[in-house]
Amino acid sequence: MQLEEGKRVPRHVSIIMDGNGRWAQERGLERVKGHLQGVASVRAALEECADNGVEYLSLYAFSTENWGRPDDEVNYLMQLMFKSIMDELENFMANGVRFMVLGNRASLPDILNDSIDKAMEMTAGNKRITMILFISYSGKWDILQAAKHLAAKAISSGEGESWLVGVGEKDFSSLLVTDGIPDPDLIIRTSGEQRLSNYLLWQGAYSEFYFTKVLWPDFDRAQMKLALEEYGRRDRRYGKVK
After folding, report:
1. DSSP string for residues in 61-78
2. What domains are there in the chain, each with its CATH number?
């Protein structure tokens, strides 16, 4: 479902996948069934973005705050992510998808970390599109860990405060988990909610936002195309006058 020729395409699209639980509850199902259905939407978004030349697709899969959900749901999500990664590996290789996971991986189960390492290693040379899952991630955590690294560098320099004077935005950005990845041009949130929910707080400073009432399990390729088309109509000025 390619866009019209000449349409501006975002280099990096990021999605806050919201509404899995509500989708299931509306159908009288357990919440976990919504998460399972949402896997198909991930595949649809990836295919639509790849076909239209998007270089990076990132997905907010599991936030730091999500650890506070019921144990049964958390355990199911960990198992679902492990299974999905393993199931999709063949497709990643066949379609040139580089796979990455960013976040506080120290808190993840060993079996999930092992599958992540395997998938990242196998797909490292793929160049058609990069798909990033943010797992056990929060924007505040990301900024805090970067600040701690920056403080450690200042101390080790032996110059302390005077060393910090020369630190710029690019220096700080290089300490975030997204180092080497362009900031998202477009951030999409499904289910009607209109907030960032502690996601990419630094990186999303100049992102375009697209909110839709569609619940994530119902977000198909047609919905992804609508979001890309809307982005193409935006006038991005970055605080300047054109």
Report:
1. EEEGGGGGS-HHHHHHHH
2. 12-137+183-232 (3.40.1180.10), 139-181 (no CATH)
Any catalytic annotation for residue 113? no
Q: Provide the CB-side half-sphere exposure for 185 (13 A, CA).
A: 19
Contact assessment for residue 216 and residue 20, using Cβ atoms and an 8 Å cutoff: yes
CA 105 – CA 103 distance, rounded (Å): 6
Please choose, from the candidates 64, 10, 12, the residue with its C-alpha nearest in 3D space to the C-alpha of residue 180. Answer: 12
pLDDT, one tens digit per residue, over 123-144 is: 999 999 999 999 999 999 999 9
- From the candidates 18, 142, 183, 185, give the one annotated as an active-site residue: 18
Of 20, 52, 66, 142, which is the active-site residue? 66
Q: Note the pLDDT tens digit of each residue in 39-61.
A: 999 999 999 999 999 999 999 99
Whether 66 is catalytic is yes
